[in-house]
């Protein structure tokens, strides 16, 4: 019995150095968050206006937008997420950033068919306040306030309807800026903008007071959209 115990102890003593050097096989690998993917994405901008925006395909991130809300309530300014509950008298402005240079349209979709264009122009990583100089004020009519964000790395040549239940329609003018909504795909994209809240294959995630919406490099030249629904009580 003593001999067996001695052999066992000897084997344990010999195994200890090996076990100490053995790496931990059970490594907890965490999936990257939406914020990680957004920050990891880089672009090689070929021109100041972003028209020759060239995504770096060697990085592990994804192109997209980051959205926050500036809230002015009772004279105090704070930064909130799109999931915040808002009340009559509150005033807000959006803080929109992208990790690519491109274009964005922001539309406040009215429940009565009246749509208000809050922003329509270029955007890049330095970020923009929307509206640029004013506030969006919540009146006494409680409900859901709908704001649609449409973005692309290329100019978008469709028009926003300000007095129609359809937010977007084919532009009657022949846009010479090289807009990327054309051909058979144009009607499909516009139908999705008018009838859905989120483009196909887009991912939306709220991290703290930041809302991240991510797309892919392949889809970025075409208009991508997401909808924010603000709760007004």
In short:
With 233 residues, the protein is an alpha+beta fold. 17% of the residues lie in helices and 37% in strands.
Outline the fold blueprint.
Layout: H1 2-21, H2 34-40, E1 43-45, E2 53-55, E3 64-73, E4 76-80, E5 85-86, E6 91-98, E7 102-109, E8 115-123, E9 128-130, E10 136-137, E11 143-152, E12 159-160, E13 168-169, H3 184-195, E14 203-207, E15 210-214, E16 224-232
Parallel strand pairs: 5-16
Antiparallel strand pairs: 1-2, 3-4, 3-6, 3-15, 6-9, 6-10, 7-8, 7-11, 11-16, 12-13, 14-15
**Helix-strand makeup class:** alpha+beta
Total discrete domains: 1
List SSEs in N-to-C order: HHEEEEEEEEEEEEEHEEE
Mean pLDDT: 79
Q: Give the termini separation.
A: 79 Å
* Share of residues in strands: 35-45%
Radius of gyration: 25 Å
Q: Given the structure, what is the number of helices?
A: 3
Number of strands: 16
How does the overall form come out from the CA principal axes? globular
Task: State the helicity in percent bands.
Answer: 10-25%
Poorly predicted runs are 44-52, 173-184
Main pleated sheet: 7 strands, antiparallel
Can you characterise this structure?
The structure is a single chain. The chain has 233 residues and is an alpha+beta fold. It has one domain (32-232). 17% of the residues lie in helices and 37% in strands. It has three helices and 16 strands. It has helices at 2-21, 34-40, 184-195, and strands at 43-45, 53-55, 64-73, 76-80, 85-86, 91-98, 102-109, 115-123, 128-130, 136-137, 143-152, 159-160, 168-169, 203-207, 210-214, 224-232. Strands 3, 4, 6, 9, 10, 14 and 15 form a seven-stranded antiparallel sheet that branches. Strands 5-16-11-7-8 form a five-stranded mixed sheet, with no helix packed on it. The protein has a two-stranded antiparallel sheet with strand order 1-2. A hairpin with a 7-residue loop joins β12 and β13 (168-169). The longest helix is centred in the N-terminal third of the chain and has 20 residues, at 2-21. It is globular and about 50 Å long. Residues 44-52 and 173-184 have low confidence and may be disordered.
């Amino acid at each position: 019995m003593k001999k067996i115990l001695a052999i066992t102890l000897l084997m344990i003593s010999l195994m200890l150095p090996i076990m100490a050097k053995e790496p931990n096989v059970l490594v907890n690998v965490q999936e990257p968050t939406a914020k990680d993917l957004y920050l990891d994405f880089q672009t090689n901008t070929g021109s100041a206006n972003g028209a020759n925006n060239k995504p770096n395909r060697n990085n592990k991130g994804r192109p997209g937008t980051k959205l926050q809300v500036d809230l002015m309530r009772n004279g105090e300014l704070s930064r909130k997420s799109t999931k915040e509950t808002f009340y009559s008298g509150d005033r807000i402005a959006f803080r929109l950033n992208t990790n690519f240079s491109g274009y964005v349209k922001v539309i406040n979709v009215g429940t009565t068919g009246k749509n208000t264009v809050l922003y329509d122009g270029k955007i890049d990583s330095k970020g923009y306040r929307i509206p640029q100089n004013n506030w969006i004020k919540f009146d006494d009519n409680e409900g859901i306030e709908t704001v649609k964000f449409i973005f692309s790395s290329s100019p978008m040549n469709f028009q926003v309807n300000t007095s129609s239940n359809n937010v977007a329609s084919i532009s009657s003018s022949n846009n010479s800026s090289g807009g990327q909504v054309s051909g058979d795909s144009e009607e499909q994209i516009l139908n999705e903008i008018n009838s859905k809240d989120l483009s196909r294959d887009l991912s939306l995630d709220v991290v703290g007071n930041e809302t991240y919406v991510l797309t892919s490099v392949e889809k970025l030249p075409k208009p991508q959209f997401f909808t924010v629904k603000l709760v007004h009580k």
